[in-house]
Design goal:
33% of the residues lie in helices and 26% in strands. With 211 residues, the chain is α/β, with parallel strands linked by helices. The protein has one domain: Rossmann fold. Helix 1 runs parallel beside helix 6. It is globular. The structure holds 5-O-phosphono-beta-D-ribofuranosylamine. 5-O-phosphono-beta-D-ribofuranosylamine (GRF) binds next to helix 1 and strand 5.
């Protein structure tokens, strides 16, 4: 059975595009059943619409409280009846209740080598720290911001003349390839979440897989 993906975005959606392309080419045996954005003019919505993927907007600015927004988002998410929720540049913190509804069925990509630099401005923080390496991480989503069990990472060197922008543009293609691989594991039933850990091919991952 084809794995049904629901992708949540807030912006450009280059990770979404990579997944659309991978599904279309058959490289990834999965189906994107919907895209939800909390930002009404997110370009990623256009990317979905032009290939006929159903989209929805749940605009956080139109809700009085975080709890109201999360309740509306959860309701909309459930309508898509997805197997796996993929956060791809989704810039809202989700409540514990929403996360619990998708325990073990929600992934996030973060542009740093977690546990380094949870939160924002990761590229600048890696530069400021003088790191020799930087990269991206995919993890299962838990109520801890960018803190759920790590699954896989890709890394790249930090060069002497890097800016946050050049570093981001080196990390982005790594993100695209990494997400495709990790979702392929999930879709094939090789990756799951058990007892607070990521489990790949029956082995709990003590360290994220390096790709
Ligand atoms: C990516 O760097 C992702 O890791 C971060 O937000 C960015 C989204 O980029 N969470 P895009 O919208 O997929 O182009």
């Amino acid at each position: 059975m084809t794995c049904k993906l629901l992708v949540l975005i807030s912006g450009n959606g280059s990770n979404l595009q990579a997944l659309i392309d991978a599904c279309a080419s058959g490289q990834l045996n999965a189906d994107i059943v919907g895209v939800i954005s909390n930002v009404p003019d997110a370009f990623g919505l256009e990317r979905a619409k032009r290939v006929g993927i159903p989209t929805a907007v749940v605009d956080h600015k139109t809700y009085a409280s975080r709890a109201d927004f999360d309740a509306a988002l959860l309701q909309r998410m459930q309508q898509f009846d997805a197997d796996l929720v993929v956060l791809a540049g989704f810039m809202r913190i989700l409540s514990a209740e929403l996360v619990a509804a998708y325990a073990g069925r929600m992934l996030n990509i973060h542009p740093s080598l977690l546990p380094l630099y949870p939160g924002l401005h990761t590229h600048q923080r890696a530069l400021d720290a003088g790191d020799a390496e930087h990269g991206c991480t995919i993890h299962f989503v838990t109520a801890d911001l960018d803190g759920g069990p790590l699954i896989a990472q890709s890394r790249c060197p930090v060069l002497a003349d890097d800016t946050a922008q050049t570093l981001a543009s080196r990390v982005h293609p790594l993100e695209h390839a990494l997400y495709q691989q990790v979702i392929a594991w999930y879709a094939a039933g090789r990756l799951r979440y058990a007892n607070g850990q990521a489990v790949l091919d029956q082995h709990p991952l003590e360290q994220p897989v390096q790709l």
